[in-house]
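Issue 218. Parser rejects a valid record. Input:
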Amino acid sequence: MSTRELYLSRPWLKWYPEGVPPEIEVPRESVPELFSRIVRKYSERTALIFHGRKISYRELGDLVDRFATALSQLGLRKGDRVGLFMVNCPQYVISYFAILKLGGVVTPISPVYTSKEVAHQVRDSGAKVVICQDILFDTVEKAGVDLGDIVVTNVADFLPTVKKLLGKTLLGKLSRKLEIQAPEIPYGPGIHRFLDLIKSSQPSPPHVEIDPEEDLAALPYTGGTTGLPKAAMLSHRNLVSCQRQGTTFWPILEEGKEVILAFLPFFHIYGQVVVMLSGLVQGFTLVLYTTPDMDEILDALETYQASVFYGVPTLYEYLKEHEKTDRVNWKRLKMIACGADTLHESTMKDWERRTSTRIMEGYGMTETSSLSHASPYHRPKPGTFGVPIPNVLAAIVDPDGTEFVPPQEVGELIISGPNVMKGYWQRPEETKETLIELEGRIWLRTGDLVSMDEEGYFRFFDRKRDLIKYKGYSVFARHVEEVLYAHPMVKAAGVVGVPDPKVGQIIKAYVVLQPEARGKISEEEIIEFCKQHLAHYKVPKIVEFRGELPKTDVGKVSRRELREEAEGV
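Output the parser choked on:
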């Protein structure tokens, strides 16, 4: 069997959970159609819990319809883009489904963005409306973009009456976290209160015909596989496919029965699709958090008897050492999942030792509507991010070409499936570079260097752009970071290549030590530790201690910022 035939034979299928098919039929439905069916079916079930305020599916459906009516009256039409500039709250959920119901397109904006970044996304997407938190209003105004309407809301708008005072506490936490102050807002023409629009509108939005295959639902922005941030064009079919593929792969999750803590940010594809959208079109209960802390999360797991836990690697790294982690009966949960970045093996081992449970790793990108690979719940394999989910074909090719690479060899991951984006918004050249045709299929070049073992499990090595070239050798930054994390006194690490005319790139490690080790461990000791566990050409030549490392919006160590700093950009 040739290498090409091996991938096309999908060797991973033998490890699928019992009853999970290799292919499913994706319903020709839009996201609002799926949501409306769940609203009717589970009308009395709690959809959202927000600091004690419970919102049933019946009430949520009514709020969505009223806000859709209001947006329609403001002039929103099919195909119009709307920026969502908020933290997790009921208003985010209401806005998301209301926009899609009108055939509009959601473009989520990170609440930590500066006015310059907001301006780029609003202009590039062509958004005519922005829905924002009141404390973010100034950022929108200073962006200086021409908007038809701005809708403003407050985190306290959907708090229980007895907890309105909590709104000030939440607002204070948000202000401190975002380093901003709540402004005075000049309500009037073009600037509207979210609650006023809902109260003055009937739950009778106009019916809009949506073609799931062609019509866009979301324009999430991403660094992508090449170039500057750009929007992935995700259709209703992309989102519905991804949701159904994930649901099929995890039959242990039962419709209308699960409870999820929704603290992962909805502006990120992981929180948006895996937690919010997928949860609410399956009748789950979402417990929303705007600015969660570990104590809140751990208490809530037991208080609400959460059955599924979605996290990111930095969260598990923190929780494995947290004093309250043992208060949670982790064995009770149906699934503990990790995404958005690679979980270090040392974190996985420490977690298993602490909780006697396993973390299910998954893999996906904004360009794959969030998910393409996941660990079979009955047979996870440490160090891998699992296998392709139903309807997904994955293969590995030469990073500089299209020749298929044999198992165990490292190459670039390519993915084909109904969850793969339509392309990049107004970026035909980048789309052409990223979506390629092979074997009569359209494949997404992910820009990720991975390998597949004989059983069909995939292992991540690095991003193509993070590969370090030293004296002709290829060094994976992640491999060096794994060794650094294995040092008992290393809390966090980031590794980059620094340009050097003699050797190509010098390996530099940025290290955060555990508090008790600061001032007691030298750079030389860290280098010596690396020499004991790495080939000579992989050992960092420079080690720099830091109090903290720059992070992305979802908590990854930002190698891009470290690299730019090291290069003096």
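Fixed in the parser; the record now loads. The first strand starts at residue 46 and ends at 50.
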